Amino acid sequence: MRSRFKITCLLIGAICVLAVVAGRGSHSQYVDFAFRTGNVILFVALVCHIWGAKIKAFFKGRTESIKNELAALEEARSKALHRVKQVEEQISSLDRDRQNIIAEYRAQGEALKSEIIVKAERTARQIIAQAKATAQSEADKAVEEMRRELAEEIMDAAQKLLLQRLDMPGHKKLIDKSLTKVVLN
């Protein structure tokens, strides 16, 4: 510690002497420049002597700090890359799942479509059968109605014809003939 103090005092003294000598102005320009340069060099030496260890420790600590930060950043980068890979795998897995779900829904849709078509065909056949039955029933009713009307018209025509052809004696003859047939049968 004592030698450090001595060196510090010696450097301060040298700086003062050089400053005094440089300040006299009787020297040439180059000598003056040399004294000033020497003064700066001595001042830097004094600063390095007094605070050199602290400056060195500061820069060494800063270097270590930067190394630690770089290591932490590299580790964070590696973790981030690993996480990116995981996310990409999840995305590809989701894509596969999406494709599987779409295929499953398509299959269900096709099955549902087939079922709907079968039901529709069955319903169509039932409707056609009902329509045929209804048409047949309506046709039978129409034929029966036509027969009834035709029978009535024939009876009316026959009655008119009989009334025109038959007179009273012929009418009595016809009644007697019909009664005999009924009695005999």
What features would you describe in this structure?
The protein is mostly helical and 185 residues long. The chain has helices spanning 2-23, 29-165, 168-184. The chain is built from three helices and no strands.
Characteristics:
185 residues, 3 helices, mainly alpha
> Between the first and last Cα atoms, what is the distance in angstroms?
170 Å
Total count of strands: 0
Measured as a percent range, the helix fraction is over 70%
Low-pLDDT ranges:
none
Number of domains: 1
Instruction: Identify the overall geometry.
Output: rod-shaped
Sketch the topology as an H/E string, one letter per element: HHH
Main sheet makeup: none
Report the radius of gyration as a whole number of Å. 66 Å
H/I helix tally: 3
Mean pLDDT: 82
β-sheet strand percentage = under 5%
By secondary-structure content and strand pairing, the structural class works out as mainly alpha
Short note summarizing the structure:
95% of the residues lie in helices and 0% in strands. It has helices at residues 2-23, 29-165, 168-184.
Lay out the secondary structure:
Blueprint: H1 2-23, H2 29-165, H3 168-184
Helix pairs in contact: 1-2
